Amino acid sequence: MEIHKTALVHPNARLAAGVAVGAYSSIGPNVTLTEGVVIGSYCSVEGRTTVGPRTRIFNGAVVGSPPQDKKYSADDEVSLEMGQDNIIREYVTINPGTKDGGGCTRIGDDNLFMAYSHVAHDCQIGDHCVMANAGTLGGHVTLEDHAIIGGLTAVHQFVRLGFMSIVGGCSKVVQDIPPFSMCDGHPAKVYNINSVGLKRAKMPSDVIRELRRAFKILFHSGLTKRNAMAKVEQEIKSIPEIQRLLSFCQTSQRGLCS
């Protein structure tokens, strides 16, 4: 371990082999830093927080601080669980869960949180997601795997962002973002499928073609969402990607971006 002489590490904190803590950083008593975690300078890691292997937290980040929720009490046993290989850039803030919201904020593996981004209480973030600079998640937001959020974008509480979706910078997201979609605006709207992301992921061309047809029916046909989903089920080949899209739409609680 490499602990800078100015760092404040509580004796009850659990630090694994290969952990490094930079100058003037603070590690609280209920924190677990697993192997290979690197903490930069002037960072604060507190609360019941577990940081997964090889995660890097850059200068000035605040991880595990109390949630910004008026119902929160210091006696609440809430937590933040973070997977492996995440990158937390400068001045990022991530809060744990709340008692009424499930008690835990969860972050998967290999995510990138760029400078000044914020993850609020009870968010559930999958793997390989990207939040660009100053992106903000309200409480209880869900990011499915490979979701991308542009810089200065704000996501309303309880909103879901689907698998391989992308939201442009400076957007206002108040309803669910469908899987495979490209969205932008204030409020955000669905413009098309995330064709660049799908091609980079080596999605077969026939799958992209079927998704494009489904999006045309769902978002550009003028049909109600219920009728549009029924039309997709009738006319589009039932492949896993279409089933994922329909399942997401059917389970939406906040409604879909228009």
Characterization of the model:
It is a single chain. The protein has 258 residues and is an alpha/beta fold. It has 2 domains: 2-143, Hexapeptide repeat proteins (UDP N-Acetylglucosamine Acyltransferase, domain 1), CATH 2.160.10.10; 199-250, Udp N-acetylglucosamine O-acyltransferase, C-terminal domain (Udp N-acetylglucosamine O-acyltransferase, Domain 2, Up-down Bundle). Helices cover 17% and strands 27% of the residues. It contains 4 helices and 28 strands. The chain has helices at residues 195-200, 205-220, 225-235, 240-250; strands at residues 2-3, 8-9, 14-15, 20-21, 26-27, 32-33, 38-39, 44-45, 48-51, 56-57, 62-63, 79-82, 87-88, 93-94, 104-107, 112-113, 118-119, 124-125, 130-131, 136-137, 142-143, 148-149, 154-155, 160-161, 166-167, 172-173, 181-185, 188-193. An 11-stranded mixed sheet has the order 1-4-7-10-13-16-19-22-25-27-28. A hairpin with a 2-residue loop joins strand 27 (181-185) and strand 28 (188-193). Helix 2 packs antiparallel against helix 3. The longest helix has 16 residues, at 205-220. 44% of the residues are buried. The mean pLDDT is 97.
Helix content: 10-25%
Question: Based on CA inertia axes, which overall geometry fits?
Answer: elongated
Termini gap = 51 Å
- Mind telling me the CATH superfamily name of the largest domain? Hexapeptide repeat proteins
**Spatial strand sequence of the major β-sheet:** 1-4-7-10-13-16-19-22-25-27-28
Structural class: alpha/beta
**CATH class of the largest domain, please?**
Mainly Beta
SSE blueprint and pairings:
Layout: E1 2-3, E2 8-9, E3 14-15, E4 20-21, E5 26-27, E6 32-33, E7 38-39, E8 44-45, E9 48-51, E10 56-57, E11 62-63, E12 79-82, E13 87-88, E14 93-94, E15 104-107, E16 112-113, E17 118-119, E18 124-125, E19 130-131, E20 136-137, E21 142-143, E22 148-149, E23 154-155, E24 160-161, E25 166-167, E26 172-173, E27 181-185, E28 188-193, H1 195-200, H2 205-220, H3 225-235, H4 240-250
Parallel strand pairs: 1-4, 2-5, 3-6, 4-7, 5-8, 6-9, 7-10, 8-11, 9-12, 10-13, 11-14, 12-15, 13-16, 14-17, 15-18, 16-19, 17-20, 18-21, 19-22, 20-23, 21-24, 22-25, 23-26, 25-27
Antiparallel strand pairs: 27-28
